[in-house]
Amino acid sequence: MKQDDITLVAGDNSLNVAMPPIVAYAGTITEKELKYQLSLFEWTDLLPIPVSGIPKGSKVRLHITGKNDTDSYQSLKIHWLVYDPDGAIIRNYEDWSHHHCPGCDHMFVTPVGKEFPLNKLGPYTIKVALSMNPDDPVEVAWYEGVLCTVVEAPPPPPPTSDIRDFDFKAESGTYDLGDSVSFDAPYEYKGKAQSGWLTISLGTGIYPAFFTKHTFPRIRVYFDEAMDWTSDELTGSFTLPTTLEAGQTYSTRAKLETDDGKQETDTDWGVITIEEEAPPPVEYTLTGEESPAVGWISGLGDYDSGKTATITARLDSWAIGSYEFDHWGGDASGTSPTTTVTMNRDKHVIAYFKALAGVYTLTVRQSPAVGWITKDPDKAKYAYGEIVKVTTYMDSWAIGTYALNYWDCDGEWVGTAASFNFMVLASHTLTANYRKL
């Protein structure tokens, strides 16, 4: 604004003096944001202050926006002080930015290379002041409060799983059909904790030709988490089936594999010879199945007549927490996961599993919000594999203005129908995306 001119009077003389304009400085701190570094070339999006759960050691870049609330062009100055959890100042930054029009704002950003690390656990605080008038700065806005809270960084993930130096060795010798053959199989592994399989086959042929004659049921194995190559060993035995040929020499071939697809194969050449006069025992086969197919049964295979087979129903790793064993069927009975079967004929067992009570959530939303969404059944938690009918509706005011564009599940396109059946396989968020007509 402009003050009126004044007249100075001295005796008979007078002087008209023009007064300079008087500026009422006014401004606002409109945005207080930060981003922190996730990796060498990756940063988070801008997050409003205060921010919780920043991993210890992360670097931070501040973004503070000031606004000129006067009716004239102004210079803006930002000044911030950052304090660590012990109250020590770790960053003192100030900067001027000039020639900002009335109502305009300016974002002050930590310069590249001047980001600061958060090396202590707990809350960091900040004081921010916005000033005008470089010749005689006037503080027009300020903020003081928590900047962020720092927590322990999560441990590094295990490396990509892999197997090496797998060396399967069966105890060499001459055997009768039905004899048990011991084996040991050292190997090295690195990666996450997971399950896997050991598959053993018997075959004929001379290196490098291997002609498979018998493959045993797969043996479930388990790998502990290893951040680097770690030595381990599998030991056990297998029973020579009656289908082998008397007088024949066999090689053993074993494949060790993980559930995520890494594998190694090793062959022990010419280690087992079958006696010429091996008496063929009566042998029966124990087979099995799972209902539903969420696990497997250990102990299946071929048994001599009268032998007792011990079988155990087990869940696949992905089904643990969603299913549990219920009961046996077929040629086995009982509700214990482990039971026995007497082999006096070929037999078949069924392991029945049941889904646990709901453990997964299904969140539904509209973007933009133009009505409502129903779920049938509408529950807080759902079981794995449960079918839910989802339908989106528009409020009366939105009909004719908006139309359903598509559905997405956790960001992945699903379909365009207003109503559809959805199978719950984990906790999900379904979004009905609308477009304006």
Task: Describe the overall structure.
By secondary structure, this protein is mostly beta strands. It has four domains: 27-151, Coagulation Factor XIII, Chain A, domain 1, CATH 2.70.50; 162-274, Immunoglobulin-like (Sandwich), CATH 2.60.40; 283-355, no CATH class; 362-436, no CATH class. The radius of gyration is 37 Å and the shape is elongated. It has no helices and 37 strands. Strand 3 (27-39) and strand 4 (42-43) form a beta hairpin. The strands form nine sheets. Strands 3, 4, 5, 7, 10 and 11 form a six-stranded antiparallel β-sheet that branches. Strands 16, 18, 19, 20, 22 and 23 form a six-stranded mixed β-sheet that branches. The protein has a five-stranded mixed β-sheet with strand order 6-13-12-8-9, with no helix packed on it.
What is the CATH architecture assignment of the largest domain? Distorted Sandwich
Q: Tell me about the largest β-sheet.
A: 6 strands, antiparallel
**Beta-strand proportion:** over 45%
Mean pLDDT: 91
Q: Give the helix tally.
A: 0
Helix content: under 10%
Number of separate structural domains: 4
List keywords for this structure.
437 residues, mainly beta, Coagulation Factor XIII, Chain A, domain 1, Immunoglobulin-like, 4 domains, six-stranded mixed beta sheet, 37 strands, 0% helix, elongated
Question: What can be said about this structure in brief?
Answer:
With 437 residues, this protein is mainly beta.
What is the topological layout?
Blueprint: E1 6-10, E2 13-17, E3 27-39, E4 42-43, E5 47-48, E6 51-55, E7 59-68, E8 74-83, E9 89-100, E10 105-109, E11 116-117, E12 122-132, E13 138-151, E14 162-164, E15 169-170, E16 173-175, E17 180-191, E18 194-204, E19 211-215, E20 219-223, E21 226-239, E22 249-258, E23 263-274, E24 283-291, E25 295-298, E26 301-304, E27 308-315, E28 323-330, E29 338-342, E30 347-355, E31 362-367, E32 371-376, E33 387-394, E34 402-409, E35 412-415, E36 419-423, E37 428-436
Parallel strand pairs: 6-13, 16-23, 24-30, 31-37
Antiparallel strand pairs: 1-2, 3-4, 3-5, 3-7, 7-10, 7-11, 8-9, 8-12, 12-13, 14-17, 15-17, 17-21, 18-19, 18-20, 18-22, 22-23, 24-26, 25-27, 27-29, 28-30, 32-33, 33-36, 34-35, 34-37
